[in-house]
Amino acid sequence: MGKAKQSTSTAVDTSVFYISSFSPTPGVVAGVPSTIVINFTQAVNPIVASAVSSYTFACNGYTSIAAASVAAGQDSGVVSITLPSAFTVASGTPCTFTVSSNVTNKLGTKVIGTTSVVYVVN
């Protein structure tokens, strides 16, 4: 009898609702991003996901700012957050962008995993 092969699959578990990416990529950025795009693994509940209160952008030494607008598609896992255009911070300032854990998929499942990322303004 031969040995059983061990699975080496790296398939993504599509039964779990999480954030698969942020754009721009977290890290050093040239200025405060004007728009942050979030890709979820499943279609979001557009009512919750399009609420401005579902997202915060906070920079060390500055007041947190609310999104100017949010666009979430009806059957999409992509959400686009536009930040106020007049918001600037000093070079080297770390800013944390956070997605509320209240954001859900269309079945009402709350997002899990990483919901905050850091941008360092250069």
User: Kindly state the mean pLDDT as a whole number?
Assistant: 89
Helix content: under 10%
Shape assignment? elongated
Please state the structural category: mainly beta
Number of helices: 1
Radius of gyration: 17 Å
Number of strands: 8
Parts with pLDDT < 50 across at least 5 consecutive residues:
none
Our estimate of the beta-strand percent is 25-35%
Strand order in the largest sheet: 1-3-6-5
SSE order: EEEHEEEEE
Q: Give the termini separation.
A: 61 Å
Biggest sheet descriptor: 4 strands, antiparallel
Can you give a write-up of this model?
It is a single chain. By secondary structure, the protein is mainly beta. Helices cover 3% and strands 33% of the residues. The chain contains one helix and eight strands. The strands form two sheets. A four-stranded antiparallel beta sheet has the order 1-3-6-5. Strands 2-8-7-4 form a four-stranded mixed beta sheet, with no helix packed on it. The longest helix has 4 residues. It is elongated.
